[in-house]
Amino acid sequence: MPHNNDQDDEVLIAHPCYRVRTTSSNSVCPAYCDCEFPKSTIVAGYKGHVPDLIKCRCGEDDPAYHCIKWHWYKCPESDINLDGPNVTFHPTYSQGTAIVRGDQPLAAGMMHFWEMRILTALSGTDVMFGVGTDKVDLAQFKFHFVSALGTNAQSWGFSYEGKVHHNGHQVPYGQKFSQGCIVGVLLDRTRGQLEFFLNRRSLGVAYNNIPTDPSVKIYPMICSTAAKSAIRLINATYQLECLQLRAFRAVSKQPKAMEELRQLPGLKTIMNDYWFLAPPVRYSQQSKESEFDILDEAVLSKNRRGRKQKYKDDDVDVDDLYSNAHKIALHHRAESDDDTALNEYFDEYFHYLF
What is the per-residue pLDDT for 269? Predict the structure, then answer.
């Protein structure tokens, strides 16, 4: 299960930071935008390259932050078709689980972020996004239909069914998702944290036990059992771990403050470098009908694993200011904050951005 290495009696549970009030736990997340995507029947009968059917470029057309610093690796034994950032699993028919990984490991001491656009409807045993070590055998489940990422201690995965998997355990995490959605992955190799995004909304920290040892090679990965399932890598970037990045990450927890920061010309370069900590909102009109609330992270104790709890003031570790800054700001906010000055949110760490 997702866990904290420092405390065995406490589990860091992953849950949506933005909760949809109007949908049930079994609902499927709306697409990122309102563009049309081909139906499953069209994809199934198409004889050409499946990604060619998709004309939508929403979320990948902003030159200010669009960047791909690594690509997919073609394993000869995997049943996949690679075409630049596009990967098509089981191009003809499926007889098991195909796994693809990045062509280079994700370096330690860095914060990595990448996004993938789901081009076709997802179905079947599983389609998963996540990370794994170099010990993952990409052809292990070639003739078996399984949730490959998370079957053992060497990989961590986020399923299209809305669950996260690791070491043979699975935990409810977020909404189900499918065609048209954007799945983001934020990997902090300094703190060993893995966080997923859905349509550029953070779902919270999923795992806190990713190896930080530089000798352990970690790769981005996707697995799929669905025939002709197509995924496009639309962004892949990384930034060196530093105090400036930590400060910006704390500030990014405050949407209103971020809007004010975007008006400051002197911060344009920083905003572009760290855009993935406060990514652009999605375009879908359907998703705009849902109200989202920002929630604190939740802690699931060993003896209350069926219940989610909000952080209390006593839960904030004042010695770890930057990881808890968003909680401190929320707890000490005034009753009416419409006109609250920016420095009232970030007295302790805002100046590190400059």
Answer: 81
